[in-house]
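Supplementary Methods, section 5.1.

A reviewer requested that the exact input to the structure prediction be made available. We therefore reproduce it here, unchanged from the version used in the analyses.
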Amino acid sequence: KFTKLWIHECKRVFEDRMINDTDRGWFKDAVCKQLEAHMNTSWEQVVDHPRMIFGDYMIPGADPRIYDEVTDMDALKLTIEEYLHDYNAESKSPMPLVMFLDAIEHVSKIARTIRQPQGNMLLLGVGGSGRQSMTRLATYISAFECVQVEVGKGYSMTEWREDIKQCLLKAGVGNLPVVFLFSDVQIVDEGMLEDLLR
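The structure derived from this sequence is encoded token-by-token as follows.
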């Protein structure tokens, strides 16, 4: 299991950033060489399922949350759907999502990242592919608060900096787990991106 966890974390850190099958094939070959050279095993001996998913959310409300492999895909689907049902019951803007395994895998990846210290992600995809919905659900599953700015007519850098200040006060002074969700359509000034990259 430890070897499988190592492969999973390599996939999350490196493979998720690759853009085509050629690069993903190169990554798998590199991992296979390391498995044979340093762990005296092979990919086939370790990876027994096409979907390798680890998470700490399978037991809602658990304390401490244990990061472990998820092997039962049916139980995973039911658990994520239960989280979604709870989110929709509490939210002012419920999300009528259909959870299939690819979407659940994305939620799991986002949840893994945001629970890490200074965890951040850049999600790419066509409009309407579910990037914001998956992030909101992963934030709820991780018991974080999702903060998003409301960009309206006349929204300027003054309002932006005030919104950022409130978010930072909540996270830093209030010591609350916060996810800041920011979409490309909300960029009204290049200075916003410069503020985020400082």
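Strands lie at 53-55, 68-70, 145-147, 178-180. These observations are discussed further in the main text.
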